[in-house]
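We emphasize that the prediction below concerns an isolated chain of 458 residues; any contacts that depend on oligomerization or on bound cofactors are therefore not represented. The input was used exactly as deposited, without trimming of termini.
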Amino acid sequence: MTMKLENCMRINKHKTSFRVLMAAGVLHSIFFNVSYADDVQSLGTTLTPLGAIKAGNAAGSIPAWTGNKAQCPANLPAGSLAWEPFADEKPVLSITAQNMAQYKDQLSLSVQTLLQTNPDYRVDVYPTHRTAVQPDWVYQYTKANATRATLTEGGKAVKGAYGGTPFPIPKSGGEAMWNHFLAWKGSATDAVSDLFVIDSNGTRSLSARIDASRVYPYYVQDGESKFDGTHWMLSRAQIKAPARRVGEATVGVFPMDYQNQLFGSWQYMPGQRRVRKLPNVQFDTPNFFVSGVANFDEAYGFFGSPEQYDWKLVGRKEMYIPYNTNKLLKAGPDSAIGAHFVKPEFVRWELHRVWQVEGKLKSGVRNSVASRTLYLDEDTWNVVLSDLWDTQNKHWRGGIVYSSISCDLPGIVPLPFENIDFQQKAFVLGEWGSEYHPREPRPRSFYSPEALVQGAQR
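Result of the prediction step, given as a token string:
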């Protein structure tokens, strides 16, 4: 009788504990949902429509976001990025190797390394201007996404999002990364840009002049009912220079779901007169277009599937980042690209708030980059700075994105971008172009491997 009573009491105790845990879980869910609902309502009020802090900082060095477009020159040619915003302003601060320690917390490790290893390198800081804007319909979709978008397939896919930032109030590093991938770049664009490699001797080589057409099915205004949820970007490009590569062409498709949908690139080689699928143009595969100075996943700060890393959302902080850098494109590569770095007199740095995201390589996964720290501009969600460590925990590579104003878009475009290999003492500059033309989307058939052959035969 005593044993039965003890067993009964033990069972009741376990039931009580289970009920307490269940109640606690329900309460947590209720409070979390209420809190998150309050956060969503703050979009467009205390937060910007994309989830940035609308107010300036306490010091006044970061102004409030107003949503006003930049004042572009009246005579600026359509699609041109080659102008100088805020041309009458002077630097309020110059950071060099001598005073770097004072500003260390606001500089990425890669920028610090550039300062330490190049006596002539400096960071010229100008007054901050929060010029990032998007069309109103992007803001409306972003608010809708805040309560319907979800990560699936272990972070390799996004469901339920369209036409705006999928996670304006991110709860994880994975959500922040998809905000980066799906940042506003237009509905469809045409652009000609250069891809440069600068070796350890300071010799600059044109790897490719690329005439690219891109469509972003995820961002077609009033196109949600037609969006099949498969690909967020389709790209087709022709090589215009150097002479040995003229006639080469590529098509790339970039999915919303890296687990179940088609991803890859196809290349047309005029000498062979055939199309082939390029092998594994992602992860740490050395980018053969730039002689392996950077890997495919280093473009734009980070590019391709996020699946190899566990992503941690560290939080917001204030950082010095390149911003409103159109002067760089106005100057052109011959003037602005130095032997070992982009010349400081052509780069505008500003103090902005960024999201810090850390990626640690998953157990059992092979990648030459064991960990990386990325900094995402809170006003655009573009990665703007990156630091990379190898498997020996040595900082060996980094990235800088020079954010420029597109008056026609409107918005900020993440170009050009730079990848730096500190071991090889070489760097890459991609998407260096002075024009960025929004256009009506071309049909999906234009972005197919078959279309490459048809285009080459014309």
